[in-house]
Specification:
Blueprint lengths: L23 H11 L4 E4 L6 H14 L1 H4 L1 E7 L13 H20 L8 H4 L8 H16 L17 H14 L4 E7 L7 H13 L5 E7 L12 H4 L1 E4 L9 H10 L4 H9 L1 H11 L3 H10 L5 H26 L4 H28 L8 E5 L4 H12 L3 E9 L5 E7 L1 H5 L5 H10 L7 E3 L18 H12 L10 H9 L5 H6 L2 H7 L5 H20 L1
Helix pairs in contact: 1-2, 4-6, 12-13, 12-18, 14-15, 15-16, 22-23
Length: about 550
């Protein structure tokens, strides 16, 4: 039985290149991430943002002796845990975390940063690199544990200001013949805390220097860049799009799976290629979803494939989206309306178009729809949230519809469309191969489904976010996207809630998990923590 890596966090950096499938688009993204120009990498959950960042990090690590570019990976996924009285808590936490990871990365390269003019800018006392890293680690930990006592004050005395930090980086680079530091910010901003978003993109912009390059992974639809950040001047925007119409699409999806497949799965895929291709098309270029659905039908039998597609894309994929409204009450009406719009209007209308094309043997199928640019703002917000969870994908703007009016074209998650078919593996490939982007269902500015829609979104206050977080921490482990084996093992050591996992250190887990080796225990905890923090963040 295959034990897939669903998350990049589970893979050790030295192994990451073993799982990389070098497609043309992914290679272009990685080369951009390694360049001297800042990059904003956008993609919904599971599309591979973290993976591509880690590939770029691994390649820079391997070429460090020649190119002298030091990669520093930083994840901000724990941002939802920060609840101090500091009005600039996110900025100070980021600077402490960046400083810690910089010192750690230098130390791992054998560059010991002791007392020097550079480090004097980071800390005001004589200290070696390990103690310096430990000092910043304690500050970071204090912020990330502030959810236990909301409103607590964390001292910022030991956190360098931005100018001192940039000066320190410059002096470190000059002293150790480093060309530049390449920061990779993963899970850059919390989607429902606009203040954090503004602080992050201000810092992203202000960190730019000849010695620093910043790259950040963000989600579509819900990321606000603020008034001071201008994409055209401050970064290169790159979106992850694996086009299912591309000639290399099926081969690349197959290779992603075969990189982790055992002998039995390899044979089953080769013997049932049409069934595998249906799963690959349904995943719409999302590697995590691809691996999850393949894991549900390893024998690749037609009945299993049809069942997996219907179960996953009819119900389970919607659970994450609906969960946003359950956690963030101010967004619940817009989340629910967006789901109803897709399930009750867009999907049935799209299926009717495809059925008519099939019966009349007319060319072209569709998974696209178009929304007028003057549609209510509530509609646009609902679509932005659907893009965040990957149910829809924004294709392009300023597309002409009927009467030459302008609007935005979207694509539906192809698996959701296939799940409506009586036999997805019978019709799925035909629909996919005949997709034509000019064919789409249109929703004008005054379409009847928009009539009377006037939903006012209420952004949660800090107090409400704290209450939401505390409620989520008491949720059962069942809400986490872990395997049954992982959940059972956690229950064996009396970890039954999200809070229980959050409180358990890696060392404790390795000691308590009987008949589980340290490597697998670490991997299981990493998987649990990654899923936990992603779940809490939205």
């Amino acid at each position: 039985m295959n034990d897939f890596y669903f998350r990049t966090e589970d893979i050790q950096l030295e192994d990451i290149l073993n799982y990389f499938v070098n497609t043309g688009q992914d290679r272009q993204i990685i080369d951009l991430l390694k360049s001297a120009n800042p990059v904003i990498l956008e993609g919904s959950r599971g599309t591979g943002k973290s993976f591509l960042i880690c590939v770029a990090q691994a390649e820079l690590n391997n070429s460090f002796n020649q190119d002298k570019i030091l990669p520093v990976y930083i994840t901000f996924v724990a941002s939802s845990l920060i609840h101090t009285s500091d009005p600039e808590q996110f900025k100070h936490w980021m600077l402490a975390k960046i400083s810690k990871q910089l010192i750690r990365s230098l130390r791992k390269k054998g560059i010991l940063v002791g007392l020097s003019p550079a480090t004097a800018l980071l800390v005001k006392e004589e200290i070696n690199s390990e103690s310096l890293e430990d000092k910043f680690d304690k500050i970071v930990q204090a912020y990330e544990e502030s959810y236990k006592n909301p409103g607590r004050l964390v001292s910022t005395d030991e956190i360098p200001d931005l100018i001192d930090f940039k000066d320190a980086v410059e002096e470190i680079c000059e002293a150790h013949n480093i060309k530049r530091i390449c920061f990779f910010f993963d899970e850059a901003v919390h989607i429902f805390r606009p203040q954090q978003q503004r602080q992050f993109f201000t810092l992203f912009r202000d960190l730019r220097s000849p010695y620093i390059t910043c790259n950040a992974a963000v989600y579509p639809g819900v990321t606000s860049y603020g008034r001071t950040f201008e994409m055209s001047h401050d970064a290169t925007y790159q979106r992850i799009e694996r086009d299912i119409l591309s000639s290399e699409y099926l081969d690349s999806m197959k290779e992603i799976v075969l990189k982790q497949a055992d002998e039995n799965l390899f044979k089953n895929i080769e013997n049932n290629m049409q069934n595998f291709n249906t799963i690959a098309y349904a995943a719409n270029g999302n590697p995590r979803i691809l691996l999850k659905t393949v894991a549900r039908c390893p024998k690749m039998r037609s009945a299993d494939v049809n069942s997996a597609i219907k179960t996953f894309y009819r119900s389970e994929i919607w659970a994450e989206h609906t969960g946003l409204g359950d956690k963030y009450k101010g967004h619940k009406p817009i989340v629910d309306w967006g789901r109803d719009f897709i399930e009750n209007n867009v999907l049935p209308a799209t299926k009717r178009k495809n059925d008519i094309s099939s019966h009349e043997n007319s060319p072209g199928s569709t998974c696209y729809f178009w929304v007028h640019r003057d549609a209510p703002e509530s509609v646009k917000e609902a679509l932005r949230l659907l893009a965040y969870t990957g149910i829809v994908q924004k294709i392009d703007d300023a597309v002409r519809g009927s009467r030459s009016e302008l609007g935005t074209r979207y694509g539906i998650k192809f698996g959701c469309l296939l799940a409506m078919e009586a036999s997805p593996n019978t019709n799925g490939i035909s629909i996919a191969k005949n997709l034509t982007i000019p064919k789409f269902t249109q929703y004008g500015a005054n379409h009847q489904v928009f009539q009377g829609l006037n939903i006012d979104i209420q952004h949660e206050s800090d107090a409400e976010l704290i209450k939401t977080l505390q409620n989520e921490l008491q949720q059962s482990l069942e809400v986490l996207d872990l395997t049954n084996w992982q959940k059972n093992k956690l229950r064996e050591i009396n970890l039954v809630t999200i809070y229980d996992v959050l409180q358990t250190t890696e060392e404790e887990m390795k000691k308590k998990l009987y008949q589980v080796g340290p490597v697998r225990a670490r991997r299981m905890r990493n998987a649990a923590m990654a899923e936990l923090l992603e779940y809490l963040s939205g």
